[in-house]
């Protein structure tokens, strides 16, 4: 990425702003400038008041106040000063109310953009091509959708606002100083500018390095925790939990060390600037001591220098720290700019078409290669399935069964050939209608940590009870559910941990039935189950066989395929044979 850190950060935000938000951002900047001007004016107004108040008769002598004093015909300096103090207090009151309002507007603006960023990230990943999604892995996805937008807001947007408001304060202060005493400006510039630049140059690359290292390490921690608790049983039985704990601690030790270093770097600029300012004051003092005659004017210069430096130092410090924070959070800008290319976006076209499945489903010469893999995972598949048929798929591991089903489910799109439904090619314009009629039950059925009802309806708020009961009955779940103390509202535990393998799969089947699936894909639904559970699942499949639903079953156990009209055998992505169940059973016997 090219350009300075400020330009890069501004560009990264600009990507998310609508034209009206861009105008609003400019408006915010103007408001910030006004706030800074009022801040400086507020402080500057105190100086002349203090001066006239300290000296009896000071008001009359003051070029600024005496015309006002005379115009309003004040009777005593005391009353005049009292009015002046009240005016100053009201001014501060109004100024602070105004700056609080600006602050509120600014934070609301930042919060709105933050929402836009989160929305854009989550939209990016829900429309991400399936195989890239698998490559990224859930810790990275969680980091990119939850942490990165937060880091972007805290580490780019807020510091950018701070930077610009401090620039405004410094500008207004510096202009006032130039107008008041150009020599003072010269000394301040000589002292503060090189220090600021040197401090920033010394720390910026380290800050960036710390930021990208923390960004690399955090998802690793999340991955370790995820693996530890997903595989808790296996890991505990192998007595390997300590290894996971140690690698987590090892990773966290690095993160904590970098966090501490980053905190230290954020403190350093102020210390450095303070040291140089003190050095400036001492140098002028020394000069005053060693060159007699000029001492009184020099000492007043020291006073002014100290006052101006005191005013400028915190602002300059905040400017550097916010720039360093921008550097530290560079990784968020880089992460957000990933995958903006069209090839990573599979958003279905807005204009969607209906799908009518009355007669046939035809895989017409379908071939598919994974990106970067020359060997086809699925090659020239050409089969026709009639509506209502039950079709089995067998073949050794890696023969392409799951890939073929993923093509049918449109998670993968064939490079050549077509999927024809009643003779019509299935395109991205049919996606939503297609998803409405196709269902999928995997070996490890996905279950949420919610009730059975929510798991079957996928959290429907307006549940159709009749359909739900039908789904429970057809999936052979009715007696199990009615035996539970809380029935269908019983919670299933994390990933269905309170259920048996067979119950989990039957919930998957019930989910597909509740959706009124017309084509159901059962992927290796019984291979991981014991005999009793297999019997339970097969019973549900037998019931399904009586329905009009077209079923495609991938199975390792031949018995699962007993209701199939045809069974296709795959090898190396191709169909090498078509069998009947009876033949297969005979061949085994
Ligand atoms: N995301 C991927 N990227 C690259 N190659 C892949 C990917 N997923 C699967 N493959 C490859 O595609 C081929 C077909 O895999 P597929 O999962 O379809 O086989 P399968 O018949 O379902 O196997 P199993 O019975 O073991 O599930 C295999 O050689 C596999 O290594």
UniProtKB/TrEMBL annotation:
<feature type="transmembrane region" description="Helical">
    <location>
        <begin position="80"/>
        <end position="98"/>
    </location>
</feature>
<keyword id="KW-1133">Transmembrane helix</keyword>
<feature type="transmembrane region" description="Helical">
    <location>
        <begin position="185"/>
        <end position="203"/>
    </location>
</feature>
<dbReference type="InterPro" id="IPR011527">
    <property type="entry name" value="ABC1_TM_dom"/>
</dbReference>
<keyword id="KW-0812">Transmembrane</keyword>
<dbReference type="InterPro" id="IPR017871">
    <property type="entry name" value="ABC_transporter-like_CS"/>
</dbReference>
<keyword id="KW-0547">Nucleotide-binding</keyword>
<dbReference type="InterPro" id="IPR027417">
    <property type="entry name" value="P-loop_NTPase"/>
</dbReference>
<dbReference type="GO" id="GO:0005524">
    <property type="term" value="F:ATP binding"/>
</dbReference>
<dbReference type="InterPro" id="IPR036640">
    <property type="entry name" value="ABC1_TM_sf"/>
</dbReference>
<dbReference type="InterPro" id="IPR003593">
    <property type="entry name" value="AAA+_ATPase"/>
</dbReference>
<feature type="domain" description="ABC transmembrane type-1">
    <location>
        <begin position="64"/>
        <end position="328"/>
    </location>
</feature>
<dbReference type="Pfam" id="PF00005">
    <property type="entry name" value="ABC_tran"/>
</dbReference>
<feature type="transmembrane region" description="Helical">
    <location>
        <begin position="272"/>
        <end position="290"/>
    </location>
</feature>
<dbReference type="InterPro" id="IPR039421">
    <property type="entry name" value="Type_1_exporter"/>
</dbReference>
<feature type="transmembrane region" description="Helical">
    <location>
        <begin position="26"/>
        <end position="54"/>
    </location>
</feature>
<protein>
    <submittedName>
        <fullName>ABC transporter ATP-binding protein</fullName>
    </submittedName>
</protein>
<keyword id="KW-0067">ATP-binding</keyword>
<feature type="transmembrane region" description="Helical">
    <location>
        <begin position="160"/>
        <end position="179"/>
    </location>
</feature>
<keyword id="KW-0472">Membrane</keyword>
<dbReference type="InterPro" id="IPR003439">
    <property type="entry name" value="ABC_transporter-like_ATP-bd"/>
</dbReference>
<feature type="domain" description="ABC transporter">
    <location>
        <begin position="361"/>
        <end position="589"/>
    </location>
</feature>
